[in-house]
Structures are given as structure tokens and as C-alpha cells.
Amino acid sequence: MAQTTPNHTQTVAGWAAHDSSGKITSYIFKRRENGVDDVTIKVMYCGICHTDLHHVRNDWGITMYPVVPGHEITGMITKVGSNVENFKVGDKVGVGCLAASCLQCEFCKDSQENYCDQIQFTYNGVFWDGSITYGGYSEMLVADHRYVVHVPDNLPMDAAAPLLCAGVTVFTPMKDNNLLESTGKKIGIVGLGGLGHVAIKFGKAFGHHVTVISTSPSKEKEAKERLGADDFIVSSDPKQMQAGKRTLDFILDTVSAQHSLGPILELLKVNGTLSMVGAPDKPVELPSFPLIFGKRNVKGSMTGSMRETQEMMDVCGKHNITCNIEVIKPNQINEALDRLARNDVRYRFVIDVAGKSAANL
């Protein structure tokens, strides 16, 4: 697989992992010239997603090293191609998970390009020109304008960065289940992490009663007092789980660790829906009786389309929704990844790329 083409003439400084140890080091590489459909972006901030951790350590067996992670990118446009009409130099923009798709299939034509079977991602993907894609752990990025969104002026660029993945990943299933149009539903959020904390904010902004379902009793105070959750269920407490049976219309499961769906399904009303956005690396337990006796649905959802991503950003601008973040310098990336592996972050690390420390990794 070609890492570059003759059109890759721009030298860029970034940070990459070179093997499954996952250790991130400084990396100089090439990006393509800005094409007619491209925009060039000076990267300001980049969130650290759990997917980054999986890729740098090759947990899924698909990593193409060296890998430059990062798909929660905010920055400023410095150049636009001749075919680009919806962006201009100086615009605040964001880049999420998607870098390219076929543009011809039923999903691409229906603004569901995230489900295109030729979808390519912002890093560890293969772009149309055959080159491997490199992500936002870098000082600049060249992106096709069709996979770039505007960041509302009132949102801070650092706290908006994780919205490009964590935000749209929880926004899309809420939209799919009509939670944007209706109000007063009882919804549950499983897991209080990078995705879960944003889901609470969306649920409250859309006018719903939000219950957090967590294995950690220590998170109850923060869930309610800081994030605005209405209720809290400790999933390891049989009495609390029993008291919550058949009380929820919709549950969003954000947990990426292996767990059983049976007890969670029992919290749903008849005809309720459980939507999974977490990605455990081992199969989850899905007993049949909670499905059958509750006429319940289990479905999955991945990151949203570009249209949905822009809609999500606009909603965040309207309701002033951002992520709770811890800003780090590039020379702290390895420490942050280790802490992320231990779930030691509230709730998203964001790399200050533009103001980076001069120290080498």
C-alpha cells in the first residue's frame, strides 16, 4: 500500500505509533497538495478517542503502521480548492471520522455515506489516490470539503473537538429514534465516559428524563449535579435494577467492555429500544427472554453522516453543548493514552496541537 503519491509534496510534523507497543513519537511525513475539491486545515486541537488507543496498539488487527491517529479535529482553513464553495480561508471547521466514500451507492446518495461499504476513515484508511490516510495528531490536514463541517462561532475549539466523534456518535441514534422531535421520554445512558457524558447533555437539551446506568456508584453525584442527569442506577445493585424494570423508553449503551445486555434490556418498557454505540472486542451476552417478553429491539449505530454531523454541530451551537475535556500538550500523548486505558479521564483528552510544547517526544 502506497503511503504517498507524487502529489504528496507537503512536509508535515505529527505524532505516530510505529508498532503494537502503541508508543507515540514525533513523525515527519508527507501530505498531498490541496486539490480542486480540498481544503487545507491548520489543526488547532484533536481529541483522543478510545478508537485511537485500539489502533495504536493494533487491538483489532487492522492497523497499518506507522499510524497517525486522530479523528476529532478542529482547526482553521488556510487554503481552498477551486471547486469549493461552502468554505473560505479563515473558517473554523471540524473533521471527524470520514475521509472518503464511493459517492455513488444508495447510501452515499441518501446522505448515509457512513454506511458505504467503501467508506475510508480519516486515519488508517486508503484515500481515493491509493495513499494511506493520516489523522489529526499533526499540524495540518488536507481534506475533501465534502467531509468537513463548520464549527459554530460560539463554541470553543478545544471543547468542540470531541463532538466530531463522541458527539455525533450519540446524537445520531437519538435522532434515529425520534428523540429530537419528541420530548418527555425516559431515556437511559449506559456508561458515563467520553460518549455517555455528551449523551446526557443531548438528552436534557432535547427535553427528556435522563437516567445514567453505571457500575460506579461514585459517579452518581457528578452525573446529577454536574451533568444534569435525573436519576442514577448502579447496574451491579439488584435492588436498583429491579426498581428500574420497564421504566425506560430508550437506552443508549456506550460501554466498550464486555457485558451482558439482559439486565439492561429489562429496564426497557415493552417495545423499547436499546441502541449500541460502544464496541466491545468480544461478543456481548444477549439472552432471548428479555427480548421476547418485552418485544424489545436491539440495534447498532456508528458515527453519523456528514449531514448529521453538521446538524449535530449546529444543535451544539444552539444549546451551547461542548465536551468536558482535559487539554494536554503533544508530549503528554503517551501518558494520556495510558490513562485512557485505565478510564482515568473526565471525560475526553484533547491535544493542543497548535500551541504544542517544543519538547520532543
TrEMBL record:
Protein's UniProt name:
cinnamyl-alcohol dehydrogenase
Please provide, alphabetically and separated by semicolons, the GO molecular function terms listed in this UniProt record.
cinnamyl-alcohol dehydrogenase activity; zinc ion binding
Enzyme superclass (EC): oxidoreductase
Q: In which pathway does it act?
A: Aromatic compound metabolism; phenylpropanoid biosynthesis
- Pfam families in the record: ADH_N (PF08240), ADH_zinc_N (PF00107)
| Keywords carried by this UniProt record | Lignin biosynthesis, Metal-binding, NADP, Oxidoreductase, Zinc
Cofactor(s) needed: Zn(2+)
For this protein, the Enzyme Commission number is 1.1.1.195
